[in-house]
Amino acid sequence: MKVHSEVDTLYQKMRGANGEELFAFKGMMNDDILGEILSRVEDTLSEYESLMKLQRRINVIAVEILQNIFHHFEGVDSTTVNDPSHNVVMFLLSKGKDAYYIIAGNYVPIETAEFLKEKIDSINNLSVEELKKRYRKVLSNGDFSEQGGAGLGIIDIARKSGQNLDYDFITNDNRNSFFTIKVSVPV
Amino acid sequence: MKDFLKKDTPKTPLIQMEYESGYFLISGRSIPENSIEFYRPLFEWLDEYNTKPQSKTQFDVRLEYFNTSSSKCLVEVFRKLEFLKASGHEVEVNWYYEEDDEDMQESGEDFKEVIKLPIHMHILEE
């Protein structure tokens, strides 16, 4: 599909770029597909990784990215999910020498891309101790807004990864950006 | 008052709240899409429990892993138990994690820091 040509190019570029590819998906997103991706990731990990704690860590990071950071926001702009030109998600799991890599991309409204960028930038600047404090603060603050929810998700991913979070986004109209996040999980 | 029981699924935990004994258990995974919707019946049950609680309530948490929206709901559950404790009832929380699982250990410590309840940490032997 022409409209997804940038996403196609990106997807092809990402495939095989981070060691051995364990699972790769690009296509339309809905609740069933989300569930399917998560169960495929889980099955793959139980086959490739013997450490339960690493399996769990990667599973929960995948859950957090797909449910909270991405899927979450589709509700914000409900037209996005029904618009075929903007309903494409990519998800890759691969294993390099020292780490697993999770790369996920999804269309989000431009404002969301900006929000995610700022959130990730600010979180990447925090030390382990500061991350812990930030997480606990958000956790104890009763209600949390839609965006606050994604905020907690990003902090959680950063803590579990222990590495800076990589991201990138492509914007080619005035409404949506294709936002990609890359998380490494050291083995 | 009836017990609150929910079987586990691949995305949601087992929840077993026994009224007569005051023994509460949650175990398994908690990664529902819509955590608030999933936990709402439990919140309602706990609100009712708090109107006629047992003198001692024990809550065992044996979760494998959970998403951040579930962690918000767990805070809500703990807040209700805090209320119980503040009104003079005995409340004890046991947090179980596997020996090498730093993530679940860390999560337990996060709650310990944020919640005003005695949370005892227990290592599960593999």
Concise overview:
With 187 residues, chain A is of the alpha+beta class. Chain A contains seven helices and five strands.
Labels describing this entry:
heterodimer; A: 187 residues; alpha+beta; Heat Shock Protein 90; five-stranded antiparallel sheet; B: 126 residues; alpha/beta; Transcription Regulator spoIIAA; six-stranded mixed sheet; 3 helices; globular
Please provide a written account of the structure.
The complex is a heterodimer of chains A (187) and B (126). In chain A, 53% of the residues lie in helices and 23% in strands. With 187 residues, chain A is α+β, with helices and mostly antiparallel strands. Chain A has one domain (2-186): Histidine kinase-like ATPase, C-terminal domain (Heat Shock Protein 90, 2-Layer Sandwich). Chain A has a 5-stranded antiparallel beta sheet, sandwiched between helices. In chain A, helix 5 (110-124) crosses helix 7. Chain B has one domain: 2-Layer Sandwich (Transcription Regulator spoIIAA), CATH 3.30.750. Chain B has helices at 35-51, 68-86, 102-114, and strands spanning 4-6, 14-18, 23-30, 56-66, 90-98, 119-124. Chain B is of the alpha/beta class. Chain B has a 6-stranded mixed beta sheet, covered by helices on one side. Chain B has 3 helices and 6 strands. In chain B, 39% of the residues lie in helices and 33% in strands. The chains are: A alpha+beta (187), B alpha/beta (126). Chains A and B meet through helix 2, helix 3, helix 6 and helix 7 of A and strand 4, helix 2 and helix 3 of B.
